[in-house]
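New here. Invent one.

***
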Amino acid sequence: MKIFHILLLFTFFSFIVSYDSINDFCVADLKVPNTNSGYPCKPVENITSDDFVFHGLVAGNTNNSFKLGFTAATVTNFPGLNGLGISAVRVDIDEGGLSPMHTHPGIFLRR
């Protein structure tokens, strides 16, 4: 009898769940302001292949006291990352350079 109730509940919930709000991807619409939950999605008809291509991870400027330069790929310059919770950084350290002690609170750092 318990299995019957479980199957009945599963069938009931499978019919009331709407999959219209689930996106395969959510390209950031940078023309509207950022919200607490991130950028809203661009309308599908406005999405282009350029939203998923990023050529900005070039050598950073190391002409500073630390001889350290970095370039970042975030949602603001790579809209295809929106909703994925990821970003990328290229770090360039010149000869004799150093990275000062720092922390990343609340961030998972993969090396």
Summary: The chain is about 15% helix and 10% strand. The mean pLDDT is 85.
